[in-house]
């Protein structure tokens, strides 16, 4: 396996939660080895592992393309999704409590998928994205249905400065009655970023309030960029 459970166990999850509370995102450096990144990137031209392909320009999403995996997911993708979910559940439930949202998330990903499937969300959402020169991804959110897990993970599979230039991962935070705050994240090959899917709580002088997060990718100048997206809820 390309990512062992002990790798996740060794991480400082209290610090990661603190960063997510502060910024709505947190980076895990070198979650995947370079060889694993290359194997995942090499899946993109294939047909069999995927259920659909999206050309972004046709939908006004930007420029570039991506493919959604079908079930059964590739082993690395399945193990990442299954292993990351329970480590994010405590924060997800705490966020929902702070935002006065009634839903709570079960401890296992299998239990959460049962909820998604009962709500008619049956299609897997992990995806592989491919960008070339002048491609970009508009600011957006990956929601897909009524059941939404509030955190997701993106793993950069290409090396900045070597495989591509430009193409930075961008997050924006829309705050009530204030202008949006942007963040540009410096990711290397194999790095993972955990970030808020939609809304997250922020502590203010009168208690918690909600901010809305969106994510995207700035324009590539040259080369090719692949990213693995791990979304925990399934789609309608």
Q: Can you characterise this structure?
A:
The protein is α+β, with helices and mostly antiparallel strands and 236 residues long. It has one domain: q2cbj1_9rhob like domain (Jelly Rolls, Sandwich), CATH 2.60.120.620. Helix content is 26%, strand content 33%. The chain has helices spanning 5-9, 13-23, 34-41, 56-59, 75-98, 109-118; strands spanning 25-28, 50-55, 62-63, 65-69, 127-131, 136-140, 151-156, 164-166, 169-174, 181-185, 192-196, 199-204, 207-217, 220-223, 225-230. The strands form 3 sheets. The chain has a 7-stranded antiparallel sheet. A hairpin with a 2-residue loop joins strand 12 and strand 13 (207-217). The longest helix has 24 residues, at 75-98.
End-to-end Cα distance = 30 Å
CATH superfamily, by name, is q2cbj1_9rhob like domain
Rg calc: 17 Å
Largest sheet: 7 strands, antiparallel
**Overall number of structural domains:** 1
| Anisotropy-based shape | globular
What is the H-and-E element order? HHEHEHEEHHEEEEEEEEEEE
Helix content: 25-40%
Q: Strands across the major sheet, in which order?
A: 1-11-7-15-5-4-2
CATH fold-level assignment: Jelly Rolls
Q: Structural class of the helices, strands and pairings?
A: alpha+beta
Do you know the CATH architecture?
Answer: Sandwich
| Tally of strands | 15
> In DSSP terms, counting alpha (H) and pi (I) runs of 4 or more, how many helices?
6
Tell me the name of the CATH class.
Mainly Beta
Low-pLDDT sequence parts: none
What share of residues are in beta strands? 25-35%
């Amino acid at each position: 396996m390309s990512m062992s459970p002990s790798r996740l166990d060794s991480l400082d999850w209290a610090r990661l939660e603190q960063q997510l509370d502060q910024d709505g995102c947190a980076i895990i450096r070198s979650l995947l080895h370079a060889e694993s990144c290359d194997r995942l990137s090499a899946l993109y031209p294939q047909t069999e592992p995927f259920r659909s392909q999206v050309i972004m320009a046709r939908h006004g999403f930007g420029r570039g393309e991506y493919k959604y995996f079908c079930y059964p997911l590739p082993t690395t993708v399945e193990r990442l999704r299954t292993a990351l979910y329970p480590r994010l559940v405590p924060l997800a439930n705490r966020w929902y409590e702070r935002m006065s949202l009634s839903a709570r998330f079960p401890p296992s990903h299998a239990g959460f998928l049962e909820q998604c499937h009962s709500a008619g969300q049956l299609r897997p959402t992990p995806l592989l994205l491919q960008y070339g020169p002048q491609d970009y991804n508009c600011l957006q959110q990956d929601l897909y249905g009524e059941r939404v897990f509030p955190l997701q993970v993106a793993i950069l599979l290409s090396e900045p400065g070597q495989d591509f230039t430009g193409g930075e991962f961008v997050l924006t935070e829309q705050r009530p009655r204030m202008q949006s705050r942007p963040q540009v994240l410096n990711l290397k090959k194999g790095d993972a970023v955990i970030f808020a899917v939609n809304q997250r709580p922020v502590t203010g002088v009168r208690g918690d309030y909600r901010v809305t997060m969106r994510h995207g990718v700035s324009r590539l100048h040259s080369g090719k960029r692949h990213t693995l997206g791990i979304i925990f809820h399934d789609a309608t």
